[in-house]
Amino acid sequence: MAALSQLASIESSVKPSIKVTRRTDRSTYMFLLQHLLKPFNAYLVKPKQVYPAGSPRLDPHKKAKKRCDVMERCVDDIYLYDLEPKRPAAGGREEKKRRKRLYYFAGGGWQMPASSEHWALCAEMANKLPDIAITVVSYPLAPNSAAPVAILMLLKLYNTLLRDAEDAGEEVILAGDSAGGNIALCLPLAALSEDPDGPCPTAIMTISASTDLRRHNPDIKVVEKHDPILRIPFINGTAKAWRGEWSPVDPRVSPLYADVSVLARRGIKVHGVAGRYDILGPDAVLFREKCNQAWVQGEWLDWEKQMHVFPLTWAYKLPEGVQSKDWILDVLRRS
Question: What are the angstrom distances between the C-alpha of 130 and each of 46, 83, 94, 105?
């Protein structure tokens, strides 16, 4: 794995601004799950339908509605879903005023909306992070709303939400996994490239984010034989569908090519989770090191032998899923 070997030497020579927690263990349950998933990987990632242009209106999953009241609103033609923990019985504690709001962008190859696992994670965050209001963003999906359309819509939404947060005295955190993690990174980078002094989030949390739509990293082929979910033709196809006529090195779709120094200048923390049995992992690690060299602050969980978006397995009580989910919650509490 030549690129990662070179990266290791770079990491050793640069004083870190990003704290990396490294794990190498793998439970028997995760080992078995990964081997059970391999024969079905094409089915697991295949979109169930093609969505029309614009923001799809969602039906929140019962995993969220069981634990939260879910309120729908529409801002700048984008549907948003606010998750509020179920109210205590009459005479219970009064609601605290939130000082932070987290906007979550769910993964799905830029072609699928939030899954049951995404709703479960957001409901967990809503219940375990009382100081943070949780909102799921239903962003426009490819192929009918590729990036040249969707990103412009989302930048308009981004500016509205960040201005509203300033007026309300709220801090904003952007978060997402896979394709959603890509969007959570691209939006502030694009907005700050246009207006370096504009409103911005305090932190970004990514899980298995897609950071380079060129897909040219040689380590991808090395990791592919271990990845139980993703294959190179699939990630190439989703990247092409999302970027449309934009270049794969356009920083609006590939944050690895953005000027990340704007994040350091504004004090925006970049947190992340990367699994090393994930073919998107090598590029995520390169993006992490780019942030590290630019003195961007943040915390990352780097876990050997873990698959794409493994924290989402917490709902099925997989040890690594539960522990990585708890790590995410702990970092968000301190962000």
Answer: 35, 11, 12, 20
